[in-house]
Write the structure tokens for this entry.
Amino acid sequence: MFRRRLASVALILSAASLNCTPVVPDPESGPPLPVPDLPYLTLATSEGYIVIELFTDMGTAAAALRTAADEGYYDGTIVHEARNARWLKVGQYSSTLLKSTNRSLVNESGNGLANYEGRVAMYGPADTASGVPYLLINLANNLDLDFSGTAVDFTVVGRVIKGLDIAEAMGEVTTATRTAQDGTVLSYAPQTTIHIKRAWSSMGPLADAGADQTARTGIEVTLDGTGSKARTTGQTLTYAWTQTSGPAVELDDPTSATPKFTPPTVATLTFELTVTEAGRDDPGVDEVIITVNAPTNQAPAARAGANQKADGGQTVTLDGSASSDPDAEDTLTFAWTQLSGEEVTLSNATVAGPTFTAPDVNSTLVFQLTVRDNHGGQADDRVSVVVRARPVADAGEDQTVLVGDTVTLDGSGSRPAVDGNTLAYAWLQTSGPEVDLDDPSEESPTFPAESVGTLTFQLTVTEEARGLSSTDTVTITVNSEDNEAPIADAGEDQIVAAGSVVTLDGSGSSDPDEGDELAFTWTRVSGPEVTVTHADQATATFTAPAALSTLTFRLEVDDGQGGSASDEVTVVVLGADAGEDRKVIPSLVVTLDGSGSDPGFGTLSYLWEQIDGTDVTLNNPTTQRASLTVPDDAADGSALTFQLTVDNGEGVTATNTVTLTVATQPVVRLETSEGNIDLNILIDGAPITALNFVQYVEDGFYDNTIFHRVMPDFVIQGGGYLSGMEEADGVRDPIVNEFGEDRSNIRGTVAMAKLSGDPDSATSQFFFNLVDNSANLDAQNGGFTVFATVTDETMAVVDDIATVETGTFAGFDDVPVVDVVLLKAFIK
């Protein structure tokens, strides 16, 4: 409970004494103590071993104490007084507070030794003929105890040479008043009983089993008896370790000074060390306690790989394979999230190495890899992929021509990714009756259509300055002079219910040439995979998949005379999207957003209803976006659930729910381009300011703003500007200042910024305190209101931002040269 150990107290030797034997000077005053082969008195307590060196040349008291100990006088007694960390008293009472039997011995308080810290005294009646062997261990200098001729007197008989720290810990315990069986009131008795299990004297060596240890299962432990000391310099010590409590373990060598073992289970293990010195009968004994805990999980290390460069259209592989876990047996899972840049689709966001196709735009894509182990540990890392856009190849519209026509291919719609760069053209026929292009390297080559058929050409354009290419294809249908191409009609776009049977209707297709028979082919162009029945007929069917999906189908018709045409139709599977579940705080104005339900065509009606939680008033419940105010008295963990129903007016409906969970001690996460920062919001300390900040978070105001002011050893400020120092829209009216002296602007706190000279001018801008700014900011302009603290785990990200390069931009100082972006803010 409060075991502590110190190294053995070293003897301070002097060469001066009457008989020329070494002496120990009394600290501060008093005669020197001769140092012969002094005996040890060991108290084996419930909290550890205390070894006392007895001063035998000071009279008969020490010898009497040895006899009392060896006859079991102290066994089963307790520490019955722990006096304000000044002293301990032992040996007078048993655990049932029965007083020990007096033993007559001479009180020798006149020996001139003072009660200094670490010394041990016998105390009892001043009558020199009837002293008793009760012990007082001095935990401080108690010179006021050195008096005689009074009711109680003291004889210094020795000093603690090992375990003084254990005694000091005993002196710090909580005490209470207890009454002994003889009626004596014990005013400073420890509330938790401290036992003297046994006591004995010894002329043997000093055993030291080392400091108590805390260990982990499966990790090797080394016991350490090297602190043991022989009585006679140079004598050999032998060691014997014995386990006295806890599940049995096997020591590799119990006779070694430093045996080892590996604990298999969580337990508390006690070992006793017996040390024997050659030429002496008495051994030295000590014990050590090893507390074995379950393995402490260590967080994994996320490694998202090196930053990359890619060209538009290139397949990019993200690489988290270097991620690791210091706990070798842990298993890792991976989760990739795109934080910024042109949106792409990962092949599998839960593997170490997903792939994606780089978009054809100049963009910097930032991905975050979150690695989790199977014990709840996790870590994040980020990687950037800089994409260079490819040129745009445009082979022109498909054409239908007649035999004998001169056909012009048209690549004029192609364009370079960088304005002003030159394009090189290369046309290649890929199917159909072979023809000769007059110049395949021209933007718009020509050829004569000499026979009926369908010809396909591929155009490759290369942006020569950058060495990047892209391709496009065009189809040329050549008909005979008297054949006209058919007309494809895939029907009207549709909104359908999930699971319904959907009919694709191409019956409106036709051919101007009477008698031409049309062939039909339906193909899914995009959307979830489905099975199309009768895909070779005018009308085909399929079963609609899960809600909120969009499918596109192409109908191709062919007249058998070289004429063909195509048309596309979009089918939207209606679904309600009530938004993601999220956390809120009391008094927050929340917008319920059903805009994700909109298919982009047709007319939908919306209906929001509350289905669980404390009743609230919904504003505009029949619109795409409804709003509400969370009750002021909403309890932590309580939930409000709402259902959205959407209807297309033709009997197709869908529903979805969203749950708002109340957090009265919320944590707001700021996802930045430099890493995540978590804020503990102090609602109780600054309710108006905290609500103001979280309302901006809820409204999405902070998303994609920048930290526009970075001043090392002072503050980092954000919350008001977009890239290019453009002011963010949506700033609300200022709030009242809530500065309190109990919330100073110390390192790691977050406060609202405001205008100079106006204490009540805070709106959206906030700042991180990088150092203790309390002397300045607590006293300035009415004090700056602290409303949050950065968590210890994420303060390193704030410190990283403080190191970025800054300069002057648009008249503002201390602006980061490269934008530090607050990508998204939300309540965790």
